[in-house]
Amino acid sequence: MPTVAPLDLDAHCxxxxxxxxxxxxxxxxxxxxxxxxxxxEAEAHDGLLSAAYDAENQRLITGGEDGRVVAVRSGGxxxxxxxxxxxxxxVVAAGPQKAVAFAAGRVAEVVFxxxxxxxxxxxxTVEGLSFAxxxxxxxxxxxxxxxLHFPATEGKPTELEWAGAxxxxxxxxxxxxxxxxxxENALHGWKLADxxxxxxxxxxxxxxxxSWSARGRWLATSGAPAAVVWPFQAKDGPMGKAPLELGTxxxxxxxxxxxxxxxxxxxxxxxxxxxxxxRFADAKEVLLxxxxxxxxxxxxxxxxxxxLAFGSESGQCGVVDISx
Length: 324
Description:
mainly beta
């Protein structure tokens, strides 16, 4: 049976990440807590707004109300990477070659490993950022579509249009597809080779969490009473195909999803604080955490896929050990 090691904190958990195999919990008050031979903490911001895990370099990239972008490393080390005076850093992203991107208002900034910066201005507010899995390319979610840049060059960006407000963005792990979350209860996607559109609708709520499976064959999403998992195995992705619905509950909505690092399994967090794991092949479920007092707001597996860190809106955090 899975065992749960709780960590009760006092602010909304924005993100969780495993840095050098130690769970770190980033809270909205700007503090980053970790379980490392006891409970330790470090201050990253005066108010934290956004976070992105940089698996390649074992760091958590965070942006805050203080206009700073920092990298949090294991042991609580906090390194400032950039700042924008009097701006709230609403979006951050981690890229290849130690590149980092962040946005405030209509401007996205890319900071390269050597400290050089490139500003990318847009006619409307930047809502989401994502680096492509290969090459130095970045996608920007915006009103009426997405913009793709090669920030290391001065080339003209690629514009992908679709009416509506696009709030988040993600490349598939193989780089063949680009998917955005929307202000309406839907996802939109493009097949990058030919620009074909993919519309994934029917959600009762906005999609605020998503996770690609280990080999990129599936995309798990929140926004329904089940984890909605879209198939991306075919050359045209999910077009014309129905999604899986895993962990269906009639009395609670899915708020967070996190795919296992090796298996076709997804961890699912709900509005009532429950956490389940469900297998794609047969929809088999395992209860990982009983309901708590608030919605699950962050989930992350460790590298081995044996432990799952979770955080909630009220600060109820912890680690589930599924090895028993």
